[in-house]
Amino acid sequence: MAGTAIPRTVRPAGEDPLARAVWRLRSRACWEDAAALLAPSAEQDAGAALQRAELLIEHCLFTSAGWNRAEEALRSAESLSLSDVERGAAACARGYLAYASTRLEVRDRTDEARAALGRAAALLGPGEPGRARLDFRRGLMAQHLSGTPQAAEAAYRRAHAEAAAGGDLLLCSATWQQLGTLALLAGDAAAAREAFSESLRLREETGFLVGIAPALMALAEVQPEEEAGRLRTEAGRLFRLLGEVPRWMAVQLA
Description:
mainly alpha, Serine Threonine Protein Phosphatase 5, Tetratricopeptide repeat
């Protein structure tokens, strides 16, 4: 993984003013405000509807709240999806929402998550838009719901290569984070440190502020105590600044 070439400069939202406004709100934990900006176009445009649904699903993951709104937004996106790629992306989002509900112990939707991600895999072939995201989410399923770390690692590595090729640095950051967790569980602190450091660097580079505190906490796990304390203090500051999200970090910081 260390040899994977990833561009060091990126503008996640490009030059489009609406996309940039949505990104700024999303990165600062204002998912509902970001979704509201997309609401007018989401009424008829499948891409905008799916993006809005993804924002609200991410809100659920960080706050363990807003499930009904995310479900309604996803159903709307599914109703507008016509092409195989659109239907595949909507199925991928459906699987992710079901995964999140199960992982956060809101409601067990494991079977729904597996079925939806399976549909997505049938519709999104290698190289198709959204395939990297799908592989990452299948890795999450394998790691956290199926308990198969080898399958999870293989899925994360595929997702990482695809995301790097497409310049998706935020997804690269997510794959580094999960690969670091697997390395730490396997007892390879050096590999975990490299992965967590890269994940943090990419979140800082892209300006994904809401994701920086969890990355700091992960990196603290593999640092000497003095440095770990500094990282946890900074993570706590950001956690409070952004409205105490993600919610699960409250236990780690207590």
